[in-house]
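Quick question, first post here. What does this chain look like in 3D?
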Amino acid sequence: MPFVVLTLGILLLLLLIIKFKLNTYIALIVTAVVVGIGLGMPLTKIATSIQNGIGSQLGELALVFGFGAMLGRLVADAGGAYTISTTLLDIFGRKRLQIAIVVASFIIGIALFFEVGIVLLIPIVFAIAIEAQVPVLYLGIPMGAALSVTHGFLPPHPAPTAIATTLNANVGHVLLFGIIIAIPTVYIAGPLFSRWTQKMVPDAFTGKPHLPLSSNKRQFKVSEAPGFGLSVLTALFPVILMTITTVYELVVDHGVTPKNPSTLDQIIRLIGAPGIAMLISLLFALWSMGIHQHKTNKAITATIEDATKSIAMLLLIIGGGGAFKQILIDGGVGKAVAHWYRPRPDGNCHRLWECRRFSRERRWFLDVPGILRPDRQANAAYMDDVRNNHRCLRSRRRVGAQRHLPLSPLNWLNANYNPHRTSPWSFRRDLLITVN
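> Answer (accepted):
Ran it through. Tokens below.
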């Protein structure tokens, strides 16, 4: 029953947005209420769940998106984005702009979350597209590919870090192998895919680009705009702070949070937290792109207010998604999913192997939901399922049933891994985890 209600709720959401053109935020809240009623939640708790969902979803994102939008607008309105775009055009030329965007996005994406990198890079990408007179998608697709791949493949981002920890993999090895695999992946999903898309859907690459994140329409002179070094430093200041934290954690703490952190550990982690890093960077931008450029307080305040208006609806939509998520959790959908994947009482693994028909390695298909499951019961069921996976695989190997089920590298790893073996085995194990 919960799955039926969930399916109908998703269809209702799509109907409200696509057919009736209802505002996305309103559609999400309406759908959350309807799904909550359909799941049999007490009517008095539906409003509380919606409030809790919006609050939990926007807790850190409000800081990151808000400060990031203000920083990007300050850089753009002061002429920093113009300086960066013209300099990159002079260095790389128009034919190699995609490579420049990929390299910059890849470096930024290693330290920054996907949404933070998007907020920081969009003004620069638009400015370069305007100056070079190329379609925004021509540069936007490589940027999105680089940020997506780094966020999904490389520690210290949440999912790869949590997976490496769960499987006892060395975080440094996962980072190394992730970079090796990420480079060709970014090139295929970025520059190559954008060129193929441009041939298949040429209409999407037409039209003159404009810079929506900049309220300043005037043309900058070289003498008026900030220097290239200061502009890049301001735009990448959050990256620098988070990179310091990342390198410190990998080199000093070996990727493990110390039980008794020193004062230096706490300071480094404080400045590397996304919200605090964005706050420090915004304060620096207020000086470098505002006071240092002889801007008045009134002009700086107007820039910040415009930046806030540009992301207001985006934050509301994100909050609406959080409300819908919380309704699903409180309504019991998470527990229903956990029950679906829980092994049968007789110890058979039929459900597990049935799921493999849809995914060659079901555990990796569920890694992100397993990491993000907020209720303890679902998480416990996930870990029980992983342990049962190991036992079932060994049992089927003994009876010779493995010929009926493809033995993936990770399955072989589950059946043969011994944590007390030497480091060469650990190195091969981490490689298999990354490749799989």
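The radius of gyration is 24 Å.
The longest helix spans residues 43-78.
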